[in-house]
């Protein structure tokens, strides 16, 4: 095996740490409003629903469905060999929460709209990147 | 509906530099060509220009995406400006045209020079181009291999295909329609015939979008003079702004747009039609953004030229969108065939059409034209006429 370029490692800050490291415990962690309880993504310092500024993280099921996807045939980012799948995943816990992610563990040709998927974690340096695979 | 301020606004002059692939010309040189041409076309001198704007007015060339700044152009031309805007966000795509219209309607300026310069073809050269998003460092994108807007456009297309049964054979007609019009446009980069087999055989970029669904990095500068109608000069054929839309509903984010059944185009189109007594059936010719082909389909629906989900059937076969069809569409060839001038090519072409100077691709008797640009969270729309 030749050395392949590493996939990007996201810069982690206080706001995003739990999202990028929850995978150490096998947990998908999503920001939620401490007041109204609604989940939202990406993490931010204010609830987009009620504009409360007390934010917390909650552990979600990690289950979701493929809202849309694309099989990428032209390379753009170091470490991502084509073909690979970029997808929007809607969380089962609250379907208006959309994560931009990858679908892994399946032939890209087999990915379908509406497919049930579950979160798994890809280790990159000190970070556990949440991605999704078809539900088993 | 005489009350909307944009009704006071005309496009009094248009200018275009040499355009094409890898011209090997300096960005500033192209910009000056376009600006001086537009000023002369308006019957004005540079000293008459009292407003100036462009987008994006930011540091760095970003692979030929950024042209000269407003500060640089004012300094070079020694303009006495009563209004100026080096735009960052709200000016995106054709947002600066809307900003210029607001400035003249508010009487902050009489004649605003709006320009936009791209040298992406030269900047890319023989290198594999890196898209703006790949360079963004946005962790929510690059961590997941998202480097280009094409990946978002592809997911809008996938949604449309899945939800409404739209096919690649239908989507192809955005490209095919543009190409047959490009054959009548001496400025078009790609003018040779394109068949549906060529389209279907081309390599995939990001499924379901292939090579001919993606526009062409190009070199060229465009300029417009946006004037108050009270200060019309020797322009024999001004283009009148009837109404505009600039809304951005829901979010600014490509990545986290909530619902792929919509784009910002929907809110923008609603705003446009709320500002005029005209409607879709009054439009004689349209330029709808085809940076990626799927956006043209989604604009057709947003603007009410067909129902939700019906745009694939609307364009299929090319009859409706031809020069004698019910909606002559992308008569320059659009960005897929004429070149990527990020919205400005559409305005340039619409001014040619409404002044009846479009040569072999002229839509006979065109009086009302619609230009709508952007995709995803970006959208602006302009209804233009040649009637005062």
In short:
Chain A is mostly beta strands and 136 residues long.
Written account of the structure:
The complex is a heterodimer of chains A (136) and B (388). Helices cover 4% and strands 40% of the residues of chain A. Chain A is mainly beta and 136 residues long. Chain A has one domain (17-134). The two termini of chain A are 30 Å apart. The mean pLDDT of chain A is 96. With 388 residues, chain B is α/β, with parallel strands linked by helices. Chain B folds into two domains: 5-124 and 218-231, 3-Layer(aba) Sandwich (Peroxisomal Thiolase, Chain A, domain 1), CATH 3.40.47.10; 140-217 and 242-385, Thiolase/Chalcone synthase (Peroxisomal Thiolase, Chain A, domain 1). A nine-stranded mixed sheet of chain B has the order 3-2-4-7-1-8-11-10-9, sandwiched between helices. A two-stranded antiparallel ribbon of chain B has the order 5-6. The radius of gyration of chain B is 19 Å and the shape is globular. The two termini of chain B are 14 Å apart. The model of chain B has no long low-confidence stretch (mean pLDDT 95). The A-B interface holds A 7-11, 16, 41-42, 67-74, 76-77, 79-80, 84, 86-88, 96, 98, 100-102, 113, 129, 131 and B 130-131, 134, 139-148, 150-151, 154-156, 158-159, 162, 203-209, 255-258, 260.
Beta-strand residue percentage of chain A: 35-45%
Q: What name is given to the CATH topology of the largest domain in chain B?
A: Peroxisomal Thiolase, Chain A, domain 1
Number of domains of chain A: 1
Percent of residues in helices of chain B comes to: 25-40%
> How many runs of DSSP E, i.e. beta strands of chain A?
8
Class per helix and strand makeup of chain A: mainly beta
CATH architecture of the largest domain in chain B: 3-Layer(aba) Sandwich
What is the H-and-E element order of chain A?
HEEEEEEEE
Calculate Rg of chain B over CA atoms.
Answer: 19 Å
Overall mean pLDDT score of chain A?
Answer: 96
Structural class designation of chain B: alpha/beta
